[in-house]
Please model this.
Amino acid sequence: MIFYFSATGNSRWVALQLAEMTGDRAFDMTKRNPASYDLTGQTIGLVFPIYAWGVPEPVQQFVRALKGSPAFSFAVATCGQEAGRALDKLGEYFPLNSRYSIVMPDNYIFWLEPENGESGREKVEAAKKRLPQIAAEIAKHKPTDEVHRGKMAALKSGPINEGFNRFARSTRPFYADTRCTGCGLCASICPAHTIHLENGKPHWGKSCYQCTACINRCPAGAIQYGKGTRKRTRYRFTDPDEGQNP
Model:
């Protein structure tokens, strides 16, 4: 089994590709009860994005609730460039036989313009070339460590990630502009279940993973985060070869 967490489609696409190549199945971990699975003797994979050189909170929660000892376990982290020591930290409470990082288009719209152009397409094409090798190693249960940790990895995955989780996950800057149609998609896809509609408009509670699902996937492009996102394009994974969103 492969469990994935994905807000804008990058990690979902990677998980589905690996599942197809290995004859496995991929499941959205936000829609599964981890306590209902016994991993004993099974091959288990985790696919998720890196958030500020760390493992996203919902992934940590899901993994900590799993039970049993798998015969082989692996994790694939998608990231804009480097993963820091996120997978090493994950391995402290969920032993991993293999770990990989794979570069995908950066879409953290709160800080930067998402990679919707040529640089993003190049990353996807590079990922397509690398995934068969990863799948082959997984199928053989080959212990592997192919993670691009980058410079100052301990600092980034330590104090900097802690600072991100403590100070950068505020919901206060969120708001919906006049283009909002009140469709409710943002509330239905929020993994933190922090969005609700009042008089047909979204309102945010205190909890937020900073996954960007609401802002990037709003069909009207109506959700903003302060002033910085007003002129930025939105991102949702598109396979250049298929021209479709997963």
